[in-house]
C-alpha cells in the first residue's frame, strides 16, 4: 500500500497484492515466508519511489536465525498443533495467575511463550542465535539491521505492560533466553535503510529509510481508529475480531484474567485492552468450503434469515483449526440443542449473529473490568465493509457503531511513518485527519437489546 499524507489529505492506494498461503509439510503447518518476502519486493517495485517503508503483520510467530544470520526453516504457523498441551507444562512452573500478573496477556495456545516452550527441544532451536518476529524478520532482510518492535513483542507473553520492557522473572524461571531477541524498538524509531541489493532488485533510488511502525497489525489498526476523545470501544475486524478499549495502563486483576482479556501495547504508551474473538475466519473458511460464492448475494440472503435462531461461541478454540467449518458450526448447534443451520445463508447468519453477540459481550465486559464507559463503538478493518455485521453489532451492543476505515492497519502504518518524518502531529491530530479524509458510516442501534440478552443467556447455559 502506498500512502500520501498532507496537512488535510490522507490517500491510500494498493500497489500490489499477493497471496499468503500457509503450507502443510510433513512436520506441520508453516508460513511461506520466502514467498511473502518476494511479494514485499514486488510491492516495493510496483510502488515506485517512496520516502519511507514500514511493515506490520500478524503477531506471535517468528523466524530463527543461525550465527551467520541465515533463516533456520520456515516459521511455524500459529495454527499448527505443536502447542497442544504445552500451556499446562508452563503453568506447572509459573502459574497462569502469575503469568497474567506479570504480563497481562490473555491465554491463547499459540502465544509465543508456548511456541518457544514447544520448540526448545528441537535441533533447529538448538542452532538458533537470534529470534525475529515476522515483521522484524522482513525488516531485517530489507535493511540488515535487527530489532524487536514493542507492540508486537507485547503479544509474546514475555513483556511487562507496566514497564514496557521484558518480563525477566517469568522468562528466567521458564528457561527462556531473552538474549535471543534483538533490542526493543518503538513505533517511530528508525529501522535502517534499504540495502543496496534491495534497491537494485526493486529499482528504487536510495537512501530509502525503513521506519519502525506499530508492527502488530492490530496496533496499527487501533492507531487509525477515527475517534474523538477517549470514550470509545473498537473492534478490529478481519480474520480475527479484536474487541476492546484503548487505556493508559493495564488491567491486571484476577477478574480480568478470568474473562481472558489481554493487555497488549499500543502507540504512545497506550494499552490495547481487548479480547480475541474468532472473527470472520469462520465465514472465510465456510466460503472456501462452498467454492467461494459471491459474498454480496450470500449476505443479502443471510439478512432475510430469522435472527438469533442459532448462535455459537465465536471465541471457542474448537473453531481455530482450518477445515470443515460449515459442518463444525452445524455440529455445535446440534450439540447445544439449537436448530441446525443447513443452507449457506443460515450458516452465514449464525456466524454473523454469533460475532455480534461476542462483540456485545466483549465491549460490555471491557467497560466493567476497566471502569471505562464508552459512548460509541468503532469498527475498523475488513469487517467495516460488511453492512450486516455492522448493523447487528450496533443492535447487539445498544450503541452507535461507526464503521471505517477498512484499511485501518495500513493507514495506521502510514501515519506513524508520516509522523516520524514530520508530516503529521500527535495521535489526536492523526485521528482528526482520519475522520476528515476517510469514508465512514454510522449505524444507530435498533430497538432494545432484550433478544440479544436472551441469546447470551442461552449460550451461557450450554
Strand order of the largest sheet: 15-16-14-13-17-18-19
**Mean pLDDT across all amino acids:** 97
Which geometry do the CA atoms define?
globular
Q: Which bin fits the share of residues in helices?
A: 25-40%
Record field, number of beta strands: 19
How many angstroms separate the termini?
44 Å
Class from secondary-structure proportions: alpha+beta
Radius of gyration: 22 Å
Number of helices: 19
Beta fraction: 15-25%
List the uncertain runs.
none
Largest β sheet strand count, sense and barrel closure: 7 strands, mixed
Please characterize this protein's 3D structure:
A hairpin with a 2-residue loop joins strand 1 and strand 2. The model has no long low-confidence stretch (mean pLDDT 97). With 462 residues, the protein is α+β, with helices and mostly antiparallel strands. 40% of the residues lie in helices and 16% in strands. 48% of the residues are buried. It has 19 helices and 19 strands. The termini are far apart.
Walk me through the topology:
Elements: E1 2-6, E2 9-13, E3 23-25, E4 28-30, H1 33-47, E5 62-65, H2 86-91, H3 96-103, H4 112-119, H5 123-127, E6 130-133, H6 134-143, E7 148-149, H7 150-153, E8 159-160, E9 165-166, H8 168-173, E10 184-185, E11 190-193, H9 196-202, E12 209-211, H10 217-223, E13 232-237, E14 241-247, H11 254-258, E15 262-265, E16 271-277, H12 281-289, H13 295-303, H14 325-335, H15 344-370, E17 376-381, H16 387-397, E18 401-403, H17 408-420, H18 427-437, E19 441-443, H19 450-460
Parallel strand pairs: 7-10, 13-17, 17-18
Antiparallel strand pairs: 1-2, 3-4, 5-6, 8-9, 11-12, 13-14, 14-16, 15-16, 18-19
